[in-house]
User: What shape does this take?
Amino acid sequence: MTERMTERMTERPPLLRRLLRPRLRSVDLLVAVLLALLGFAAAVQVRSTQDDGPLRGARQEDLVQILDDLSNRNDRLRTEVDDLTQARQRLSEGGGTTAAAIEEARRRAEVLGILAGTLPAEGPGVELVLRDPERVLGADVLLDALQELRDAGAEAVQLEGPVGSRGEATSVTESVRVVASTALLDGEDGVVVGGVELRPPYRFVVVGDPPTLASALGIPGGVVATVEQRGGRAEVRQQERVVVDALVPLEAPEYARPADD
Amino acid sequence: MIPALALVLGVVLGLVLQPTVPAALQPYLPIAVVAALDAVFGAVRAQLDGIFDEKVFVVSFVSNVLVAGLVVFLGDQLGVGGQLSTGVVVVLGIRIFSNAAAIRRHVFGA
Assistant: This one.
């Protein structure tokens, strides 16, 4: 023990001396440079490991593996994106089709409503006023007039009576929309149109091409001539805008159903 | 004293400069550091044993780093780089532990 202590004591001075007063040999310098390099590399490595997350220190094949996984996942997600894009496109196209179908159906409903008399209509047309002070105009004359008007392209017709002296509607005037199923019958004081008795003077309010309608009514042997011949008076007025606002109540058919195409 | 100062200087430089490790060196740097640490521990032990020789230290330091890098490089070429890196670290770790134990016996006498 004592021997070892003395041995270490004798060993100490050169070590201490060397530590305190280092000799700068080239080998010492090399050692210092190497250690500096070690410190530098260690610090850099620690730094980069801390900085860049788990991928920084990962090995090449690990990175390749990770990259493969990411590529696969990317492919899957891309496929999913494609599918979803197509689905969205289909849905939006379908939505467009539906909207177009609704629009078309609405348009058809309007056309049919005008034809069936369930919707009011307006447009250019004529007013045909038939005065019958002598009660000589029966349902046949009115029916002839109606057929003539339909031939001339009347699109919406209503029959009114009695109208005022200038052919205007008054508070007692009754209006009946004339449609395909409207029947005209001779009544006691006038003409029963669609179940409503109208008294003269009558007035047709017709939506259609005014000159065509007027000329159709005015042809020789036509409606105007017949009325005049019978002793009544007929007056045709072309109008830029007439309103056919009498409506036929809409009744669902009891038996008839749409047939399959 | 000078080696210790140099070590501290290197650490400070590395922390201050924060250089980016070139991609080619990335697999080798950690192994090289561990190998160099092994050499340093060996040197400290030799110093305490009184048989420290600068030339031996320089050669062992450089050869340690080179061999470790070479082994990792070979492992990469053979497709077992990861496993070989682990092996190198394990071997060097064992050596560092045994050196550290010797140093401990010298310093604390136990």
Observations:
- The interface with chain A takes residues 1-15, 18-21, 26-27, 29-30, 32-33, 36-37, 40, 47, 50, 54-55, 57-58, 61-62, 76, 79, 81-82, 85 of chain B (CB under 8 Å).
- Helices of chain B lie at 2-17, 28-49, 54-78, 81-108.
- Chain B has a mean pLDDT of 87.
- Residues 45 and 103 of chain B are 5 Å apart (CA to CA).
